[in-house]
Structure formats: structure tokens, C-alpha cells
Amino acid sequence: MSDSTDSRLKDDRRFVPAAEFSKHARVQSHAEYTSLHERSLSEPEAFWREHTQDLVFRKPWTSFQDWKSPDAKFFLGAELNISESCLDRHLKSDARTRAALVWEGEPGDSRTLTYFELHREVVRLSAALLDLGIQKGDRVGIYMGMVPEAVIAMLACARIGATHSVTFGGFSADSLRDRLNDCEARLLITQDGAYRRGNIVPLKQMADEAVLQARTVEKTIVLRRVGRERAPVEMRPGRDIWWDDLMARTPSPKSVERAMKPEAFDAEHPLFILYTSGSTGKPKGLLHTTAGYLAGVHVTSKYVFDLRPGDLYWCTADIGWITGHSYIVYGPLSCGAACLLYEGAPNFPDWGRFWSIIEKHGVSILYTAPTAIRAFIRAGDEWPQKYDLSSLRLLGSVGEPINPEAWTWYHRVIGGGRCPVVDTWWQTETGSIMLTTLPGACYSKPGSTGLPLFGVDIEVQKDSGEACAPNESGTLVIKRPWPSMARTIYKDPARYAETYWAAKNGSYVTGDGARRDEDGYFWVVGRIDDVLNVAGHRIGTAEIESALVSHPSVAEAAAVGRPDDLKGQALVVFVTVKSGIKADRALKDKLTEHVDKEIGKFARPDQIRFAEALPKTRSGKIMRRFLKDIAAGVVETKGDTSTLEDFNVLANLRKDDDA
Ligand code: WT7
Fold it and tell me: Which of 104, 126, 199, 521 could lock onto 159 through a cystine, CB 3.0 to 4.6 A?
């Protein structure tokens, strides 16, 4: 492990929230936090009854949960339309004319939609989708950049009961195709192109390629964001419809009625499918349902971000990841918050962009990732110092372990020493934040992700299933189901059961390693399975490997993580080529392009190393831990090498000096 990890494990400074912050916070003391948490576990029914008061249920729930591992149901008997909690309910309050979305385009254009306007757009699109024949239960793919229409599309699907499946715009046509096929999407919503660091990502072109081999997709809705000149598109008659044309059509009166007064769905109605990486080559389509998910993201948004009228909240994640789903769309909107949405790269046109956005719009809450923070540190303090950041009152971190150096820089330089920093641990599977320090209530320790949130019964365990002693490392498990958890892997319940719920003691296995210190604070070290976290993006080693071996020149491939100061982990791949193939620079370039095409540019290996052979056990299993050492430049390999088939393999690999 890197030095930063070591220092993280030793860091035990405490940052106590300012009295001024605590005085106005929703939870004002550690004791109050503890009693709320205890109550959420001892009287879950009463706790959730109270804490879902603000949400719109057409029919109230009659029982809290039904749990027969691995099948969970929450809020049984409830009927609701999630979009009413996110939109309609705010039309009856002051929020009606307040900003719901404050959007900043990468070229510098901006646009604000009030709750009234967002509701109107969602209703319009809902009616149009109904007129296209999209029905409750149908799957709709969304492949868009960070534009308000992406949020409108998600909410319109939810409003008519269609299950959305968003694919991050950084994924390739092939990845999009696989996802559309897996969920059997009937419709795809995309845009001509997306701005990224001054360039254009040709989303529609890639969507065309994907849809060619996605037989279930009948229609494509295309938003014009960039324009003909820089993002030329071909519209296929009968299949492709411009977003604006669709919205300009006069909807049928019946659809208008159904869009205005939407149907209420069962608590467990499938809300969305989101694909994420696991330890096989095939991504997992995690299915989230309605009431439990809403309850989880609502309560955590409210308490963790301490949202209140007047705040401008900015989550910098992409809507294509769970962070965007939960903490750009459903959580904050269910709280009536004003959410900033930024389209582009953090360093476009320069490293001052984030700070200029905060100054321009008066952002008060910033939620971003450690990789971004480390990149800003590297770019230099002069960038944030050029701007007025005094509107900020709370900072958040998510997606990967934050090293104390980055934490303290964030606190001091961005937060001016006055803003609490909440490090939030959770996963695509958990739906909502599981661990953090409630701002105003609990002190933070840089590098620790804090304490369990409401309803979260979490522990560090040994392989035997026993709880670890304080400061003893083990695996992080959650001991009972919680409302916002994913319900299954779409069309693969067996994999869901086996991946998450196969522990003998019935706990949910997170896949992360952690320890809990003597104060009860959790320190998450990182994944213990074959999943990497590169720049906050989750990448399965098996996915990279299967992408590489699908190239005709490659015989075998092994992907491992290497500690990286900027990205947390860097992706290193070891490749053996087929006989007669020249392992040279040109092939490395080809393999890089191949990964771009198979998965997407964000999954590009940082280093490709050719090898004569890969270290294997006698039974032929690749010994990844040796490769990890070699990738990290560790000179002596520790641990048992007795099962290694051929010692020369290791010696030869070390000699490789990256041709
Ligand atoms: C994995 C989940 C849910 C947010 C976006 C990532 C790692 C996430 C933290 C944190 C240390 C973290 C874990 C987790 N992770 N947040 N605050 N500290 N590690 O969602 O793609 O499902 O990845 O990200 O390893 O298992 P995801």
C-alpha cells in the first residue's frame, strides 16, 4: 500500500463542527445522533413512519418489511408515484417558483428550471412517452450527458412507471448495446453530442451503432444539444425523433390526464436498473425499487447535506452513476433543494472552473470525489484563491477512500476552515449513504468515513463471521436489510444471492475491507474482491481481461490495480500475445483502442505490460497478488510462492521495463 494509506491509518485528528454550524443543523449533537440511530434500529417502524412524513404516499404502508433472505420488501402496502415526492409536492409550497435545477453548460451557457418548470417539462415528456406507447414496466435506456433533459427523462420514466436504465456517456457503443440488450429496452433517449473538455462526445453516433444490434429498441429520442455543425447526426425515419419535435406535438387528452395525475405504483415497483462492475466479465444490472429507495435517499439527503431553503447544492457526479441517481435527482429533489448541474470537465477551460461556478452561482454545498480533489491540489492553490468561495458551508466526499492530505486541503483551502467535511461511504447496491459523520452533530477524522446512518447495522468481521476487535481489519458487512438496498440483479437472482447474501451468518457482504476504531469510526481501506476503483470509477478486472482477450492478438490477460497518487488506483494490465504476434508499441496502441471500444475511454489501462507468461498455480489460476506487487514495483515478493508453477515467470516479469 502507498504511504498515503499508511498515514491515513495513523491519522487521528478530530475536526469538531463549528458551534455556529451545529446551532442550525438538523441534528445538533453526538448524543442526538446516537439516540436517533439507536431508535432507527430498535423501533424501525416508528422511525421510518416519522421520517417519511414529507413524502407523498397515495396509500400508506401497512408493514415495514418482509425479509426472506435474499428477498426483501419494504413499506408493504404502500402506493406512490415517486415523481410526486420530487415535483408535485413542491408546487404547493414556496419551492414552486424556486430553482430546482441550476444548470451550467460547459461552453458557459446557463439555464435555471424552477420546480414549476421542471414539473411542466416532466409532465410533457411523460405524456409524449405515453403517446409513443411506452407503458408501465417497460425499460427505457438513457444515454446522455449532464443536461437538464437527462433529469427530465429519468423523472418522466418514473412518472409513467417505466424503468429507466442510464448508461454513463463515457461508455462505448458496445457497452451501451450490451446494457440495452440485457434490460430489453424499448426506447433509448440520447442527444446529438456532449461537450467534454471542449471536444464533442458523439453520443448519437454511438447510440446508432449500439441500437443496430439492440433489437428490442424501437424508437430513439434525440435531444439537440450541440448542433449540426459540430455534432452531425443521421436521423433514421420511423425510428428517430427529435426531442423538440416530440415535445411540440399535441399530446392526446388521455395521455395528458395520465401525465398530470399519474398512476400510483406498488412500493416495490422497479424504478431503475443500473449496471455496475463485479468480479465476472458481465456487469450486474442492479435493480432498485420505489418506496424504500425514496425513503433512503430522502432521509440521507436531508440529514447528511443538512439541506434547507436558500442552499444551492452541487453534486459533481455524473447522472450515469448511482451518485447522480441518488444525490442529483431523487434525494435532493425529494427535499425541494436547488441543485446545480454542471455539464463539463473540471479543468475546462482551466483549473478554476469549479471555483468560478461556485462564485458565479453561490453554491453552498459541494459534494465531489477525492480524485478531483487530488487533481485540484496538483493544479495549485492559486486557482481556488482567485475566486470567492465564501458561499460554501458544507463539503462532501464520495466514491473512494480520501487520504488525510486531500481531506485537510479540501477543508482548509476550499472550505476556508469553516465548513464541515462529510466523507460518505456507500455503493451502487446500497442505494443511499450508509456511513458518514452528520455535519453539526459529529466530529470528523480525516480519512475515516465515520459512523452508521439510520437503519444501518454494520460491522467489521473476520472470515469466520465473528466481529473484529477495535482496530482489527476485516470485511465490512451489513447485518440486516435496509430500505434503499438493491432488490436483485436484473434477470439473475442467483448471482445476487451468491454475491451479496451467501455469508453463513446472513450478513450482506460489501466487498470492502475496513476497520472500526475505538471510537466506533469506520476506516474503509478499499475493495477486497476483483474490483478496482480507478479515479472513483468502479472497474471489474474480469471485464478488462475479457475485453483484452477478445482482441485477436491476445492470448491471455490479467488486470490489477497499482496505488496511484492521483487516481487512488491505476489500472495495469499484463498481456501475453499469440504466437507469431509482435508485442510492440503499435500493439499497445491497438489494445488501448480496443478497450475504448469494448468498454469506454474511462477504462483505459494506465499501463500495458507484455509478458512471456503469467504467474499461475499448478491448477492454472493466475496469481494476481504477485502481479499486484510487480505492478507496484515491490522488489521482493512476500508470501507463499510454493504453489507458483514456474519461478522464472516472476523473474522475467520484473525484468520487463515497459517497452
Ligand atoms: C465502492 C462502491 C457510492 C458512491 C459511488 C461509488 C468505494 C465509495 C467510499 C468512501 C472509501 C468508498 C467502496 C465501495 N467507496 N465511497 N467514502 N470511502 N471507499 O459507487 O461504483 O458502487 O462503488 O466505492 O469500495 O464498495 P460504486
Answer: 126
Atom of ligand 1 nearest to the CA of 426: 3
Please report the pLDDT score of residue 235 as a whole number: 98
Same domain, 252 and 297: no
Whether 533 lines ligand 1, by a CB cut-off of 6 Å, is yes
- Domain of 642 in residue numbering reads as 535-655
In sequence order, which residues have a C-beta less than 8 Å from that of residue 516 and are 6 or more positions away?
459, 460, 468, 470, 471, 522, 523
Answer whether 477 contacts ligand 1 (Cβ < 6 A).
Answer: no
Q: Does residue 463 form part of some domain?
A: yes
Whether 508 maps to a domain, the answer reads no
Expressed in percent and rounded to 5, the helix, strand and coil fractions of the chain are 35, 25, 40
User: What DSSP element (H or E) covers 139?
Assistant: strand 139-143
Closest residue CA from atom 1 of ligand 1 = 427
The answer on 244 and 296 residing in a single domain is no
Both 266 and 315 in a single domain? no
Low-confidence ranges of the chain (pLDDT < 50): 1-9, 659
Best CA proximity match to 178, nearest among 146, 156, 209: 209
What would the pLDDT profile of 176-196 be if each residue is shown by its tens digit? 999 999 999 999 999 999 999
* CATH number, residue 210: 3.40.50.12780
298 and 270, same structural domain?
no
542, 605: one domain: yes
Which of these three, 274, 308, 342, is where a domain ends? 274
Q: What radius of gyration, in Å, describes the C-alpha atoms of the chain?
A: 24
pLDDT in the model for residue 6: 43
Q: What is the DSSP string of 38-77?
A: HHHHHSHHHHHHHHTTTS--SB--SEEEEEETTEEEEEET
Domains: count for the chain? 3
Instruction: Determine whether the shortest distance from the Cβ of 547 to ligand 1 is under 6 A.
Output: no
SS (H, E, C) 509-576: EEEEEEEECCCCCEEEEEECCCEEEECCEEEEHHHHHHHHHCCCCEEEEEEEEEEECCCEEEEEEEEE
Instruction: Show the DSSP H helices in 52-172 as ranges.
Output: 82-86, 115-131, 148-160
Q: Would 521 be classed as within a structural domain?
A: no
